[in-house]
Design a protein that fits this description.
Rossmann fold
Length: 616
């Protein structure tokens, strides 16, 4: 008879998590970096007690907000290239629902995180309990059902033995490179405390190594044939290059073939910016060097990208009349998008086999030389917009230039929503894989500081620079206190443009009046005068406000030696953005309006839509 051990469901869950391992650079490590927890009724008595019993093997971290602690878990997974990840647990009701935004972020970005929200009583005897939302027509529903559409796998644990198959399935999803994404195990609070005789084998140590599928022979042959016929081939490197840790193989492929590369938001830093054939950012927030080639390319090798609208210019960027797309992707759903020739494989394995099969083939020299010249021209343009000038309110680009000069290309710059992703995508010079950390899949305001904390937990000895606007800061800033509490130093650069500057510019570009974005254009009696530096200092950080780019550079240099998180605030111009580069983005403009500006914007919009490759 198999040996068993009597544990509560929550104790079994915690013990199982301790036994899951991975291997990175020859070192065996726990695959779970810890559990983020805010306790309440629904998880404090059951899972809280279980976590205490394993606190020396599975650390528990207390966040200040359920959404932001889950963002920290996601930042940790992204910085680890999905090789390690974390869990997040909350009480029932509002604590659980607070994590749904983070679950959606992880779902869109294909990032692993284990959500463990408390749920109502499975027995239903005390119903309705505090914070329970009742469905008049379905007794099985709780607010945790909100996690279903934003989870790769969802399960509700209503009996203690159900945790056995649920955790096995959860680990398969969290570690599968194609299916990877958030998993939600909804934990009924009474079941957390119920005991069961679990088989000891359930707690045996298990090593999880990423699967690396090689390409199908026929798909590989089709890709090779298409590339060999190309006169103007282009590579689009997405986040899958980084998750596959395929940067070295991509560099070898580019060197062997001469094909220029451009990078998505998720894929930026796949190649060092100094690589002469790295055209950098592509798409709506792309460089002139990359977008010019994209418009002319006849074959696009899309590696590890889901080809979202910012990458494709809402499918109006790739204009080659005989254009073909090769989708090298581990996920078939992405590999075949827009009638692409699918090449379903791990990015590293796929590139290696492609290089071997091309057998010395190179693209036309004139095409690669054209690309190099385009990059040189873009670099000169980028240097102009990032240079220091004596203005009252510097641009985002000038702030980026200062951060780049002081922190260097080896630092990890982290950002999310607003105008900064576009400026950083164009202008930041990434030096190594993972040094550009963008959350622009779900474009979540408030991710930045919490995500930066998670990235620092993944890379404690590296410089993490968080850049965000005042709008994002006001939405979610509480994990500054956590970073101080944990002794994890961040450098946070806060660009205060007194409102939602990026959306204000979009509003103007679509013919709208300045309305409800910049603080001065909102309904108010008194405009707020927020002292962000003092606010950050009140949470234990070093808070500073600077009045110029020169002063910013001085304080950034000092921040590297500070003993705790530093928040440097600088006021910026909300109306200025880098005009060079970029591409049209499909944002629907009203067909009728009393504003002539909107009518004019609609005419332009209708013209631009004609460029979209509808059949693709």
């Amino acid at each position: 008879m198999a040996k068993t051990i009597r544990l509560t469901m929550a104790q079994a869950l915690a013990r199982f998590m301790c036994a899951q391992m991975t291997e990175i650079d020859g070192r065996k490590l726990p695959i779970f970096g810890g559990v983020w927890a805010i306790f309440g009724h629904g998880n404090v008595a059951g899972f809280g007690e279980a976590l205490y019993s394993v606190k020396d093997r599975l650390p528990t971290f207390r966040g200040q907000n359920e959404q932001s602690m889950a963002h920290a878990a996601i930042g940790f997974a992204k910085a680890n290239f999905r090789r390690r990840f974390m869990a997040a647990t909350s009480s029932i009701g509002p604590g659980a629902v607070n994590m749904v935004t983070a679950a959606a972020l992880a779902h869109v970005n294909r990032l692993p995180v284990l959500f463990l929200p408390g749920d109502v009583f499975a027995c239903r005897i005390p119903d309705p309990v505090l914070q329970q939302a009742e469905d008049f027509g379905d007794g099985t529903v709780s607010v945790n059902d909100c996690f279903r559409p934003v989870s790769r796998y969802f399960d509700r644990i209503t009996r203690p033995e159900q945790i056995i198959p649920a955790l096995n399935r959860a680990m398969q999803v969290l570690t599968d490179p194609a299916e990877c994404g958030p998993v939600t195990l909804s934990l009924c609070q009474d079941v957390q405390a119920e005991a069961y005789d679990y088989p000891e084998s359930f707690f045996a140590e298990r090593l999880w190594i990423p699967r690396r599928p090689r390409p199908d022979r026929s798909e590989l042959a089709a890709a090779v044939s298409t590339l060999k016929a190309a006169r103007k081939p282009l590579i689009v490197a997405g986040g899958g290059v980084l998750y596959s840790q395929a940067s070295d193989e991509l560099a070898k492929f580019v060197e062997a073939t001469g094909i220029p590369v451009c990078e998505t938001q998720g894929g930026k830093s796949s190649l060092p910016d100094v690589n002469a054939l790295n055209m950098a950012a592509v798409g709506v927030t792309g460089t002139e060097a990359a977008n010019r080639l994209a418009a002319e390319a006849d074959v696009v090798l899309a590696i590890g990208t889901r080809l979202q609208d910012f990458t494709t210019g809402s499918w109006a960027l790739f204009q080659g009349k005989t254009k073909s797309i090769i989708g090298l992707n581990i996920q078939p759903f992405d590999a075949g998008k827009h009638r692409a020739l699918p090449l379903v494989a791990d990015a590293r394995e796929g590139l290696e086999e492609l290089r071997a099969a091309l057998n010395g083939w190179t693209d036309p020299t004139s095409w690669s030389e054209n690309a190099r010249k385009g990059k040189e021209a873009w670099q000169a343009e980028a240097a102009k917009v990032t240079a220091t000038t004596n203005v009252a309110y510097p641009s985002d680009a000038q702030v980026i230039g200062a951060v780049q000069r002081v922190m260097g290309s080896e630092a990890t710059v982290l950002h999310a929503a607003g105008g900064l992703p576009g400026e950083l995508h164009k202008l930041w010079q990434a030096g190594k894989p993972g040094s550009f950390h963008a959350e622009y899949g779900f474009s979540t305001m408030g991710y930045e500081i919490a995500g930066g904390l998670g990235a620092k937990m993944a890379k404690p000895n590296e410089e993490i620079v968080v850049m965000l606007g005042d709008g994002s800061y006001l939405m979610l800033n509480s994990e500054i206190a956590t970073s101080v509490m944990l002794g994890l130093r961040l450098t946070i650069v806060l660009l205060d443009n007194r409102g939602f500057g990026c959306i204000n510019r979009l509003q103007m570009a679509t013919g709208g009046a300045n309305f409800n974005n910049l603080l001065k254009d909102t309904r108010h009696e008194t405009l707020p005068d927020i002292d962000f530096a003092a606010h950050a200092a009140s949470m234990g950080a070093i808070g500073l406000k600077v009045a110029s780019i020169a002063e910013l550079e001085t304080q950034l240099a000092k921040a590297k030696a500070n003993d705790r998180t530093t928040v440097v605030v600088i006021e910026t111009d909300p109306l200025v953005s880098t005009q060079a580069g970029g591409h049209w983005w499909d944002v629907a403009v009203p067909q009728v309006s009393a504003r002539p500006e909107v009518e004019a914007a609609r005419k332009t919009y209708d013209q631009k839509r004609q460029m979209q490759n509808i059949g693709d």
